[in-house]
TrEMBL record:
One of its GO terms (biological process) is phosphatidylinositol phosphate biosynthetic process. GO terms for cellular component: cytoplasm; plasma membrane. GO terms for molecular function: 1-phosphatidylinositol-4-phosphate 5-kinase activity; 1-phosphatidylinositol-5-phosphate 4-kinase activity; ATP binding. SMART domains: PIPKc. The lineage of its organism: Eukaryota, Metazoa, Chordata, Craniata, Vertebrata. This is 1-phosphatidylinositol-5-phosphate 4-kinase. InterPro entries: PInositol-4-P-4/5-kinase_C_sf (IPR027483), PInositol-4-P-4/5-kinase_core (IPR002498), PInositol-4-P-5-kinase_N (IPR027484), PInositol-4/5-P-5/4-kinase (IPR023610). It comes from the Eukaryota. The keyword Oxidoreductase does not apply. It is found in: Cytoplasm. The keyword Lipid metabolism applies. Residues 35-290 form the PIPK domain. Its main location: cytoplasm.
């Protein structure tokens, strides 16, 4: 496959925004990236390509300030290979590749596993949707969640990324906060789509039978009739209270959980972030055994 490549070097902090133009061939002889939508095929191709490229870059002793501004960027003219599965032209950009590789390591996620989960089979659509129309998908093995975001969200992520990374370092990856693993921009037919990949907060092995989005508030905190009609609705605070259920996790786990929650909330307060909630999933053992 012939391609034109414009890339920002990720091999050193000093060259994080240095652009080089060169013509080369990119071999895609083994993997085919078949998906129901071109944008998903491009995501699979892009993650596969960037992880392969990153595997050739030595892991630095420490991250440098410029790593939090760096990016890798490629423009592909796909005329000769895999034309039935990929758009004829597309662009793929990865933000802060060295930083997110470091975060994946701190969350004990191997890059090869990350690559396989996102490229072995197409991501799956989720019936969840954000308040602002954000789209949610999961990797085929349900280990990771892919969320579409706005360019403003990407800018905000850049603003908090250094503090977020430092927090993850200090807590040794032991947090209830979203585990951010990758941040991308995909361009297909001139349309830019921004995506963020996080670890699925729920187990990929155990089925979630009921879930709650809890804010600690009762004002307008009830699932709508439309939400309740879904196969797996997201219930809210008033639903939880009206049901009269309690979560029994034991005294030690309760103490550990509340300490972690307090630390996370205090960190969010330093960022002046107020709109957040706790996502709770319930696995019904008896129901699973039926």
């Amino acid at each position: 496959m012939s391609s034109n490549c414009t890339s920002a070097a990720v091999v050193s902090a000093s060259a994080s925004k240095t652009k080089t133009k060169k013509k080369h061939f990119i071999g895609q002889k083994v993997k085919l990236f078949r998906a129901s939508e071109p944008i998903l095929s491009v995501l699979m191709w892009g993650v596969n390509h960037t992880i392969n490229e990153l595997s050739n870059v030595p892991v630095p002793v420490m991250l440098m300030p410029d790593d939090f501004k760096a990016y890798s960027k490629i423009k592909v003219d796909n005329h000769l290979f895999n034309k039935e599965n990929l758009p004829s032209r597309f662009k793929f950009k990865e933000y802060c590749p060295m930083v997110f590789r470091n975060l994946r390591e701190r969350f004990s996620i191997d890059d090869q596993d990350y690559q396989n989960s996102l490229t072995r089979s197409a991501p799956l659509n989720s019936d969840s949707q954000g308040r602002f129309g954000n789209r949610f998908l999961t990797s085929y093995d349900h280990r990771f969640v892919i969320k579409t975001v706005s360019s403003e969200d990407i800018a905000e992520m850049h603003n908090i990324l250094k503090k977020y990374h430092q927090f993850i370092v200090e807590c040794h990856g032991n947090t209830l906060l979203p585990q951010f693993l990758g941040m991308y921009r995909l361009t297909v037919d001139g349309v830019e789509t921004y995506m963020v990949v996080t670890r699925n907060v729920f187990s990929h092995r155990l089925t979630v039978h009921r879930k709650y989005d809890l804010k600690g508030s009762t004002v307008s905190r009830e699932a709508s009739d439309k939400e309740k009609a879904k196969d797996l609705p997201t219930f809210k605070d008033n639903d939880f209270l009206n049901e009269g259920h309690k979560l029994q996790i034991g005294d030690d786990n309760k103490k550990y959980f509340l300490e972690k929650l307090k630390r996370d909330v205090e960190f969010l307060a330093t960022l002046k972030i107020m709109d957040y909630s706790l996502l709770v999933g319930i696995h019904d053992v008896e129901r699973a055994e039926q």
